[in-house]
Amino acid sequence: MTDHNRSAEVAAAAKALLDTLGVSPEALANTGTTRPTMPTFTEYVPKALSNASPKSAQMWTVYLKVLTDEWPARYIDEPTATDITGLAKTVQLRSAQRNNSRGGHGARANFIDAVKFLYRCAVADRLISSADNPAHLLRKPPQRQSARRPLAPAQLADIAQAAANSGRDPALDALILRLHTETACRRGGALRLRRGDLDTTQLTIRLHEKGNTVRDQPISPTLMRALLTHADQRGGAQDPTGQLLRRRNQKPITEDHYYWMWRRIGARLPWVAALGVSSHWLRYTTLTWVERNFSYAVAAAYAGHSHTNARSGTTLTYVGATIEEVATALAALTGEPHPLATSTTVREQARTDRMPA
């Protein structure tokens, strides 16, 4: 039998099999060329973000927008790990151009986190297999040591002065700075503060911070009076469950207020802009002062670090500081009495000069 005859017989047998299966040669030829279920980045990014927690979605939206901007019509299974790594380097270079960037390493790490999340969703939705996940082998750059450091008392005074002499609402800015310096609270805790969180008897505020943590933080009589006055004047007193910190028009402030506040301060103090000083630097400053003058355990409690947090150390499960010890540190910090402070340790405030609050 010639090769031609053999080929003809094979073709005939194949055609007969296809006819039996009800599949035409044209349909077989087109198999794999269409993608009826594979979404593009433009289509899939919003769906993936809808499955993220509100806080994660807020951050990852910025980085996943890079995918929709750069690859709007590409299917999500098209890019390789090399493609994504190249885009991550682009994100890093763009971020490095900002004054307060540390080489763009944080932006690159956040971008990779966002991409890994997107592809975890794609695997869960069975759009791609785990073996085909291009983000699986991506590695974030090594974490660099934070550039934040405690501020000197003179620097704190300069920041307060700059805030008082700039902006349309210096009284609000002064209150925000005092709140962060005195309590070492996070930005989220300040933004979630409500009139109902103020305990005027115990002189504490209830802070709702990251990880759904809730803690009572002692504050000075001066700060309590300032917060109550602010609530009375700006509508917070009438809405005990609403946000306390508000603008003059009684609208709650957002994270944008922090951005513009520090930008104004940086315009008056070039070193603030050059270092990228933010409210978190105030937290560093206060907690360092507390640790140096009292103890690590008191500083951890002052910071609101959980005893079960590995970063805080297992020993704190047994030797964690009490709210009375935190109040004692606060009294030493501000030079004002506090009802929860223990008289035994208050005298220790004489060991070092007080940091201006």
From TrEMBL:
Basic and acidic residues bias spans: 348-357
Tyr recombinase domain boundaries: 146-331
Disordered: annotated span: 338-357
Pfam families in the cross-refs: Phage_integrase (PF00589)
Domain of life assignment: Bacteria
UniProt keyword terms in alphabetical order: DNA recombination, DNA-binding
Family the entry assigns: Belongs to the 'phage' integrase family.
Protein name per its UniProtKB record: Tyr recombinase domain-containing protein
Source organism (scientific name): Amycolatopsis ultiminotia
